[in-house]
Design goal:
This protein is an alpha/beta fold and 272 residues long. It has eleven helices and ten strands.
């Protein structure tokens, strides 16, 4: 009798709904900038409610996130360095990369605008004017995606600022510290709009947006999966569920509806 009861228990256990077992989960590397906007706190619970899959976030800088993916330390990534991401897909480190949304960067500076950045046609012209006037510019200098974009803009002007340029300060710091330093010194800087809005509502830095809406300043976010051929333990099926949801009408509508705590809309959905 006891044997029959034990056998019945085993059968019932196997037939229990998946929701009563340990919840399936994936590890997702993402960036500090993405985390700081608050959008993942909004999106990922919606995805989990729809799919039953929990997403464990690992928040690092963009370069570290890509490295973790290459090493198979996570299942998927949500990052914002499209050029590098596509190159790594080509090299077969990652699979199934899709655009999901974008926000943008802005050039900040003092209201007095000594380099006349506000009248520039684009970011390259703005940086050229800053160099010509030797106006103080504060850089993150931390090899982040923001720093890499800044460097590309400097290169488009003909050359990078050097250590001998006293008007150029490289901090090796995060975005918040960089904005705060630029404000204290009435300097120019490049910042993502989300970080700027968050700082503006929190501290009201003594800076203004002097240039925006340049296509060069758009920041494209993408999601992709670590190649299971390189790392067999990767939860490809579960990660693919996240990609499908983020690019679906439900996921895209959720991205477009997101507002931060101050009511600012930060992202434009643009799944490919």
């Amino acid at each position: 009798m006891k044997k029959h009861i034990f056998s019945l228990f085993i059968v019932l256990t196997l037939l229990l709904p998946a929701s009563l077992h340990a919840r399936e989960s994936i590890k997702c590397a993402t960036t500090v900038a993405t985390q700081n906007t608050g959008i993942l706190d909004y999106l990922l619970p919606l995805f989990t409610a729809d799919s039953g899959i929990e997403v464990k976030r690992i928040v690092v800088d963009g370069e570290k996130a890509l490295e973790m993916g290459k090493n198979g330390e996570v299942d998927c990534l949500i990052t914002h360095n499209k050029e590098m991401e596509l190159e790594l897909v080509k090299e077969e480190f990652f699979l199934d990369r899709h655009d999901i949304m974008y926000d943008d960067f802005v050039i900040l500076g003092p209201d007095s605008d000594p380099a006349a950045v506000k009248s520039s046609k684009n970011s390259s012209e703005a940086f050229t004017r800053i160099r010509e006037k030797k106006s103080l510019f504060v850089s993150r200098g931390d090899n982040s995606d923001t720093n890499m974009l800044e460097n590309r803009i400097w290169i488009s002007t003909g050359r990078m600022p050097g250590l001998h340029n006293r008007w150029y300060r490289s901090l090796n710091q995060d975005m918040e510290t960089t904005i705060r330093t630029a404000s204290a010194n009435q300097a120019y800087t490049l910042a993502d709009r989300g970080s700027w809005l968050a700082m503006q509502h929190k501290e009201d830095p003594n800076l203004v947006i002097l240039l925006e809406n340049d296509p060069v300043l758009y920041k494209q976010y993408g999601a992709m999966i670590v190649n299971q051929r390189n790392h067999p333990h990767v939860e490809y099926r579960l990660a693919m569920n996240l990609i499908i949801w983020l690019t679906s009408p439900d996921g895209q509508d959720a991205i477009g509806a997101y507002k931060n705590s101050s009511g600012d809309i930060l992202f434009t959905p643009n799944a490919d």
